[in-house]
Design brief:
This protein has one helix at about 255-260, and strands at about 15-20, 30-40, 50, 55-65, 70-75, 85, 95, 100, 110-120, 125-130, 140-145, 155-160, 170-175, 185-190, 200-205, 210, 220-225, 230-235, 265-270. By secondary structure, the chain is mainly beta. The strands form five sheets. It has a five-stranded mixed beta sheet with strand order 3-4-2-1-5, with no helix packed on it. Strands 12, 13, 14, 15 and 16 form a five-stranded antiparallel beta sheet that branches.
Length: about 280
């Protein structure tokens, strides 16, 4: 189960993984909640991700402050730039985190994965950190996108899934490495089969699109099972040029043509790593 709540006023930045005191929430003693927490002003939650896991173990990622008594393991050393940022030609952007687990680790589950994006390198990159001890300690951040560091290309609006059959970690995101103007993007799938230490990037789409200021990204989704990865994302359709260059034509707001020009479309992609190896993104 996945859900989200959004609030955008940002005063402080820190990435913390917290273990809730189960007694404070009247849970059974064997219940465990691990929380990825960003400190935001006025205590509202953001980017909430909730998924059921093994034997009442739950993983939850959100942005909040001071909601429950917790024990913390800090990720602040891994996140050195805020995850609220501006991306050209997109109505709004953020690098809110996701958390997922490799369930092949017994009663408490296996390796935890956290992904987010920030601009520590000057442009926006996607990062991943993992924990092999149920969130007590975390690896240094691994850069998920494989283009050269600080090349001026943004990668943003990532989403994470871990395949429960083999533990591979998959991350989908918008990628502008192919546009020198850093305005048009394709959709890229990154995959790790070594516990998040390295990622191979694959182009899931090959036609760059300009978002033209519309609302995209918050509805990206990803799921993986048995070597097949399923993604869903939004795009702004490429608009054909007018037959009469320079002509100005008013399109009524309530018309179907207006929404074709202004709106977005939903795309679905499937990557099958069992039957074939997709072409790597350039």
């Amino acid at each position: 189960m996945l859900s989200s709540l959004n609030r955008y006023k940002l005063d402080l930045w820190g990435l913390v993984v917290s273990r809730l005191n189960p007694h404070s929430l009247s849970l059974r003693p064997d219940d465990l909640l691990i929380i990825l927490k960003m400190t935001l002003s006025i205590g509202f939650r953001d980017s909430v991700s909730l998924l059921p896991a093994i034997q009442a173990t739950r993983l939850l990622t959100f942005a909040s402050v001071g909601l429950f008594p917790t024990e913390h393991s800090s990720l602040s050393g891994h996140t050195t730039a805020p995850i609220m940022f501006r991306v050209d030609a997109v109505s709004r952007a953020n690098g809110f985190p996701q958390i997922a687990m490799d369930p092949r680790g017994g009663r408490k589950g296996g390796r935890l994965y956290v992904t987010w994006s920030d601009y520590r390198n000057g442009d926006v990159d996607v990062f991943c950190s993992t924990s092999a001890d149920h969130g007590r300690t975390w690896t240094p951040a691994t850069r998920v996108n494989t283009d050269p560091v600080h090349d001026g290309a943004d990668q943003f609006f990532q989403w994470l899934a871990v395949d429960p059959s083999d533990g591979s970690a998959d991350v989908v995101f918008y990628d502008r490495r192919g546009d020198p103007r850093n305005r048009k993007q394709i959709v890229v799938l990154a995959r790790s089969t070594d516990g998040g230490r390295t990622f191979q990037n694959y182009g899931w789409t090959d036609t760059p699109f300009d978002a033209q200021g519309v609302f995209i990204g918050d509805y990206t989704g990803l799921a993986a099972l048995d070597g097949r990865v399923y993604g869903v994302w939004t795009e702004k359709p490429v608009r054909k040029e007018s037959q009469t260059p320079g002509a100005l034509r008013i399109v009524p707001r309530n018309s179907a043509e207006y929404w074709k020009l202004r709106g977005t479309v939903i795309r679905i992609g499937i990557a099958d790593f069992q039957s074939a190896t997709p072409a790597a993104a350039k």
